[in-house]
């Protein structure tokens, strides 16, 4: 069994669209200076069009439907007409991307779409038919779900071609990143710059770990994402490297994003983020998880400094003392084994927990051997080896398993532990000191730099799309059922 999460990469462009509300200043709609023509009025009155976008349009009903969808997810939304304008701008951006993707010949065949849906169903431990029935039970037609998913995949492929494939990372950038992280660790997290004078203009360096929630997900998925965010927040408060924590989480779940936003003036931070970090000092983690329409954010203020401040002399001196040759970082590895009872129909959590408690009691009473029980009862590939997982380092295992394992003494057996894979009984066999190699550090650095570069490149790309499109706002204020003005 692979406890490291290795999901198929799915197209989740809706997550990135959700972040437009908070990461990008919403582009203002460019109304024509001319009075509406008779044709405009006809479109508005008959079709309920809110905006014309190039050769297409966004309807008021689409705005209504998106608001209802967000409300069903329990998302806290702004009040008043501002909400409709925000949603409209998001829909305009989506429309532009779909139009451009079509022009470039980017599409998804029915066969590809069915395979993607089959993969999603499989990850949720359902057949295709069971997954279809679940979608219909939510009140959405399956054809509508397929159309929405198809659009998400198309936009994701277009974004990858237009943004992700063009991001370049040099060896010098990786070297500098590793040096900066080592310096921060040696400085025990001390701020990198002199703090600003109270009331003076400042820049804030904020990092985030982002746990997205699929817009079609229900209350259960929302709760799971929030719980995961709260676990990461608790870990972030410890003596850990925040971005390395994010990298470990992203390795376990590729949907999770982590990034250092870099120094920004308050007005260049998402308003939601600035409100959260307003009273948080440099080197401190925001004490609560931040919720946005796109998901949950764990935030840390890396540093605060006076606007355009240069590094103080003592900091520059410290930099010169930092070794220029990359060095291995010491870590602790654990050798453990487990018994896994997988999630499956017919096995309740109570039954799985009860069975594992029975095995635990036998091992503790020395009436049974853990390895033999694992060979007989464990339901994964490690069973043949007595449940042995090999040597594992920080971030190699899912959080629930790793946290329970780290609390055990050598030879000790855990209580039953629940993870996304099922229920585990864990025994620690040995621990050893090891080193995070330079190669692994460079892998982590490359991923972190890519995240940071992608964020900026993506926002620039969205602005360019919006600026080069022909957009005419007709009626955003009225709901579809309201009489047009």
Describe this protein's structure.
By secondary structure, the chain is an alpha+beta fold. Among the domains are: 171-308 and 315-328 and 441-457, Chitinase A, domain 3 (Roll); 329-436, Chitinase A, domain 3. It has 16 helices and twelve strands. It has helices spanning 13-23, 38-47, 60-72, 81-103, 110-123, 128-137, 142-162, 171-186, 219-236, 242-252, 271-277, 313-321, 349-364, 370-377, 399-406, 438-468, and strands spanning 49-53, 56-59, 202-212, 257-264, 284-285, 290-292, 295-306, 329-342, 388-392, 417-419, 422-436, 471-473. Strand 1 (49-53) and strand 2 form a beta hairpin.
Per the CATH scheme, the topology name of the domain at 171-308 and 315-328 and 441-457 is Chitinase A, domain 3
Structural class from helices and strands?
A: alpha+beta
Mean pLDDT: 77
- What Rg do the Cα atoms give? 26 Å
How are the secondary structure elements laid out?
Elements (H helix, E strand, L loop, with lengths): L12 H11 L14 H10 L1 E5 L2 E4 H13 L8 H23 L6 H14 L4 H10 L4 H21 L8 H16 L15 E11 L6 H18 L5 H11 L4 E8 L6 H7 L6 E2 L4 E3 L2 E12 L6 H9 L7 E14 L6 H16 L5 H8 L10 E5 L6 H8 L10 E3 L2 E15 L1 H31 L2 E3 L12
Helix pairs in contact: 1-4, 3-4, 4-7, 8-16
């Amino acid at each position: 069994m692979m406890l490291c999460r290795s999901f198929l990469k799915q197209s989740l462009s809706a997550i990135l669209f959700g972040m437009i509300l908070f990461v990008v200043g919403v582009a203002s709609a460019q109304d024509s200076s001319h009075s509406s023509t008779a044709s405009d009025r006809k479109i508005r009155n008959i079709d309920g069009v809110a905006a014309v976008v190039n050769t297409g349009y966004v309807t008021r009903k689409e705005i209504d439907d998106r608001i209802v969808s967000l409300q069903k997810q329990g998302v806290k939304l702004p009040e008043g007409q501002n909400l409709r304008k925000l949603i409209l701008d998001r829909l305009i951006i989506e429309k532009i991307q779909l139009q451009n993707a079509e022009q470039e010949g980017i599409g998804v065949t029915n066969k590809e779409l069915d395979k993607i849906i089959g993969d999603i169903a499989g990850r949720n431990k359902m057949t295709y038919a069971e997954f279809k029935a679940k979608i219909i039970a939510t009140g959405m037609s399956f054809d509508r779900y397929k159309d929405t998913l198809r659009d998400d995949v198309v936009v994701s492929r277009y974004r990858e071609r237009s943004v992700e494939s063009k991001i370049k990372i040099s060896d010098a950038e990786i070297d500098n990143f590793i040096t900066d992280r080592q310096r921060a660790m040696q400085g025990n997290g001390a701020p990198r710059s002199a703090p600003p004078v109270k009331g003076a203009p400042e820049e804030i360096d904020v990092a985030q770990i982002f746990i997205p929630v699929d817009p079609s997900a229900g209350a259960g998925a929302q709760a799971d994402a929030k719980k995961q965010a709260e676990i990461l927040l608790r870990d972030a408060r410890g003596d850990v490297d925040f971005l390395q924590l994010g990298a470990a989480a992203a390795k376990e779940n590729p949907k999770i994003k982590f990034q250092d936003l870099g120094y920004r003036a308050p007005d260049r931070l998402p308003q939601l983020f600035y409100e959260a970090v307003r009273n948080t000092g440099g080197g401190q983690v925001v004490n609560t998880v931040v919720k946005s329409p796109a998901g949950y954010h764990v935030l840390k203020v890396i540093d605060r400094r006076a606007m355009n401040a240069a590094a103080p002399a003592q900091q520059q001196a410290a930099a010169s003392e930092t070794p220029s040759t990359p060095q291995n970082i010491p870590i602790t590895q654990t050798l453990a084994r487990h018994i896994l009872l997988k999630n499956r129909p017919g096995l309740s959590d109570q039954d799985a927990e009860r069975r594992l408690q029975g095995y635990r009691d036998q091992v503790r009473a020395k009436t049974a051997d853990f390895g033999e029980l694992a060979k007989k009862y464990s339901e994964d590939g490690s069973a043949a080896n007595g449940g042995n997982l090999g040597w594992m380092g920080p971030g190699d295992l899912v959080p629930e398993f790793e946290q329970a394992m780290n609390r055990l003494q050598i030879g000790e057996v855990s209580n039953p532990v629940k993870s996304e894979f099922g229920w585990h009984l864990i025994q620690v066999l040995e621990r050893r000191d090891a080193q995070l190699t330079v190669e692994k550090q460079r892998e982590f650095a490359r991923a972190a730099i890519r995240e940071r570069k992608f964020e900026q490149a993506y926002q620039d790309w969205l602005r360019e799309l919006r600026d080069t499109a022909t957009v005419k706002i007709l009626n955003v204020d009225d709901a579809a059922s309201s009489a047009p003005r």
